[in-house]
Write a structure and sequence with these properties.
By secondary structure, the protein is mainly α. It has 7 helices and 3 strands. Helix 3 packs antiparallel against helix 4. About 10% of the residues have low confidence.
Length: 218
């Protein structure tokens, strides 16, 4: 009804409603093993993604919408890392494996440059959880021998990057969370982009515009 909606059930007066970045929140709920839009049962093994077999991390224990103010030094380190991720994504969009390998090597270097000491106590606990996942995913993606294998590993890696962007907000620019329903054997996969325009890194030129914007990090 214009800007109003009829709510028949499920909400009470005063409840807060997510209107932006819903996919990012939903992904965090999934990681915590709670019922979500993509996984109503709350069974962490039924989402189609393996988020690792280690014990619960600080990331999984936080509330889904928790964010952290971080130092300028930490923001600079994470900003360089995230910018290199975006350049890796662009190389996949361009079907350029050599360029992707170069960006991946730079990404590993940027990761090593992130100083844990630049995060205060609460943010440091959160970063430690993400850091463990990044180490695992970077190892997996670095072992790719061709662009197809690299794209397969890019899925899980992007999921972690999206959550880092939402939680720490290291870039001053608006970022778009984008989703391809056909990637990962039709399970769907996500990525971050500086542009609202869809340029699919999982298929490149073969299905360049396949996908949609599912959230915004700003």
């Amino acid at each position: 009804l214009g800007d109003a909606y009829v709510v028949e059930e499920g909400l009470q007066e005063g409840d807060e409603i997510v209107v932006n970045g819903t996919f990012t929140v939903d992904a965090a709920v999934q990681l915590a093993g709670k019922p979500s839009m993509m996984n109503p049962s709350g069974d962490a093994t039924s989402t189609g993604h393996d988020h690792g077999n280690s014990s619960s991390t600080a990331e999984e224990e936080r509330t889904p919408d928790e964010t952290f103010e971080i130092s300028e030094e930490a923001k600079a380190d994470l900003g360089k890392f995230l910018t290199t991720y975006l350049e890796l994504k662009d190389a996949l969009v361009a079907d350029d494996f050599d360029a992707a390998e170069n960006q991946l090597a730079l990404l590993e270097s940027r990761f090593k440059e992130i100083e844990d000491s630049n995060f205060d106590e609460k943010a440091a606990d959160a970063w430690e959880g993400y850091k463990t996942q990044l180490e695992r995913d970077l190892s997996s993606i670095a072992s790719a021998k061709n662009i197809e294998a690299l794209r397969e590993s890019f899925d899980e890696f992007s999921s972690v990057i999206i959550r880092i962007a939402a939680v720490f907000d290291p870039l001053d620019e608006k970022l778009y969370v984008q989703h391809c329903p056909m990637a990962d054997n039709d399970q769907g996969a996500d990525w971050l982009s500086l542009s609202e325009e869809i340029r699919n890194p999982y298929y490149g030129e073969a299905m360049l515009t396949c996908g949609e914007v599912t959230g915004i990090v700003e």
